[in-house]
Amino acid sequence: MTQNDIVQKLWNLCDVLRDDGINYSDYVTELVLLLFVKMEYEQVQNNTGFEHKLPDGCRWPDLTSQSGLNLLTHYRQMLLDLSLSHDPMIAAIYADAQTRLKEPRHLETLVKALDGLDWFSAREDGLGDLYEGLLQKNANETKSGAGQYFTPRALIDAIIRCLQPQPGETIQDPAAGTAGFLIAADNYIKQHTDDLYALDDKARRFQRRKAYVGMELVPGTRRLALMNCLLHGIEGEGEGVVQLGNSLGNPGASLKPVNIMLSNPPFGTARGGGGPTRDDLTFHTSNKQLAFLQHIYRGLKPGGRAAVVLPDNVLFEAGVGTDVRRDLMDKCNLHTILRLPTGIFYAQGVKTNVLFFQKGSPANPRQDTGCTEHVWIYDLRSNMPSFGKRTPFGPVHLKPFEDAYGDDPNGRSARTDDGEEGRFRCFTRAQIAERGDALDISWLKDADSVDAASLPPPEVLAAEAMAELSEALRELDALMQALGAGDEAMEQKRLLVEVMGLEVTSGEVGGE
C-alpha cells in the first residue's frame, strides 16, 4: 500500500465524521487529534530508544481496549488530560482540544479503521510525510482555510534547493501555517547530513531544538503545525517550534534575527482597515503583505537570505508600496524574482511571485543603502498551461528556473539574459527607478492574448457587448417561458427596465 493509498483511506474516514454533524472544514482537525496518538505509538514501536511523548492512559492501546460509551468518555477525558500535560509541547498541541463526536459508534469506527491500516508501509515512507500528505489533501479538497493559499510542495522544494539551508543556520517562517517551509528545510539538511548523523551531538541538538522558529496566528492551524514538526523529528523548545501569535504585533517584534526567512504570508488587508500593531516597522500600512515583507527583511541577520511568496500588488502598489520596495532594494540585494503561473494556488485568480534577496550587498553584508544593483526576473507565467487538478503544477515546470537560478544561494552564479523572446532577463537598478521602482515587469506576450493596438474603437466594443447581452437576455427569457416561469421572467424584466431607467409599454416588457 502506497502513501497515497493510506492518505486516501484516512480522508475517506471523514465521511464518518460528517455523519456525526461535523462540517467539512473541521474534518482534518478532528481526525488528527486521534491520528497523532496513533502515530506517536507507531513511532515508539518502530524506533529503538524513542520514548513516549504521551503519558500512561493517553496512548493508543488505551483507546483500542475500550468500546461504546466507555470509549467516548475516556477519549474526552484523555483530551483534557493531554491539554494539562506537564510536557509544554503536548499541552500546546492539545490546548482547548475537544471532540465534536457525539455517537460512540462513530468514534469506535474511527479507532478501528486507524488501527487496521497498513502502518508498516506508512513507516517505510515516514509518518511525518504521511501526515503532510493528509494536510495537502485537505488543502486540495477544501475551499477555505489551509486550502485557500496552500503553497504547492513542488514550489517549496524548489525554493529550498535554491537557498540551500545549512546546518547551524537559524530559519524562520513568520506565517508558518502547517510548517511546510520549515519541514522542507529540515528535510534538505537531513538529506545532506545522513539524517543528521554526520553532525556531532551539539549540532544535532541544535537542529532539533533551536534551528527553526515559526509563528502562526490561528490556534487550530498551529496545532497541526506542532504535530507536523514533532512527527518529522523537529522538537523545538518549550511549547514547540511554532509559536502562537501575530507576527505583525508585539510577538513578531520579539523574534530574533535569523539567517534564513521562508514564507508565504496571508493575502489581504488587516481587518478593520488598521495596520499592524507594531511600531518598529518603518512604513505603516493595512496591506499585510507589505507589513510581512518589512518584518522579513528587517529580521534577517547581515548576509542572511530570504525567499517570500507575494502577490502582484506588492510589486506595483504606489505610495507605501513604493517606499517598502525602495527600502528593500536599499537594505538588501534583491537579486531574483520568479513570476509564478496563475492557478497553482487554490484561489485561482491570485497572481503571485517569489522574491529572493540577501541582507546587505554581496561585498558588504552590513551595507544598508544601495544594495541592489540589478534584478533578474524569470517569467514562468506567460504561455504556461492552465494549472489545476487536471494539469497539476510540479517539479518539471520549475526545473528550468532552478537551472537558470544557478548553484549560488545568493544569486551570484553566472547567468544569461535570454532577451525579449526568453524567460530570464536582467534589469538594472536604474531601469527599475525609471519605472517608479515598480517591479511588475513583463515582456513576453501570451500566445492567446489580444493586441490592444488592433482592437476596434471603444464605442464599437461597447455596442458589441450590448448586443451580446441583449441576445443572452432574450435567450434566457425564452428558456424561462419554456419552463413555465413566464410570470417570474416578466418581473425580472420589469426590474431591469427600472434599473436602466427606461420607459416602455407593458407589452414591450412582456416581450409580446
Automatic annotation (TrEMBL):
It catalyses: a 2'-deoxyadenosine in DNA + S-adenosyl-L-methionine = an N(6)-methyl-2'-deoxyadenosine in DNA + S-adenosyl-L-homocysteine + H(+). This is site-specific DNA-methyltransferase (adenine-specific). Keywords: Methyltransferase, Restriction system, S-adenosyl-L-methionine, Transferase. The keyword Metal-binding does not apply. GO terms for molecular function: DNA binding; N-methyltransferase activity; site-specific DNA-methyltransferase (adenine-specific) activity. Residues 124-418 form the DNA methylase adenine-specific domain. Its EC number is 2.1.1.72. It comes from the Bacteria. PANTHER family: SLR6095 PROTEIN, TYPE I RESTRICTION ENZYME ECOKI METHYLASE SUBUNIT. InterPro entries: DNA_Adenine_Mtase (IPR051537), DNA_methylase_A-5 (IPR003356), SAM-dependent_MTases_sf (IPR029063), T1MK-like_N_sf (IPR038333). GO terms for biological process: DNA restriction-modification system; methylation. The keyword Transferase applies. It is an enzyme of class 2 (transferase). Belongs to the N(4)/N(6)-methyltransferase family. Pfam families: N6_Mtase.
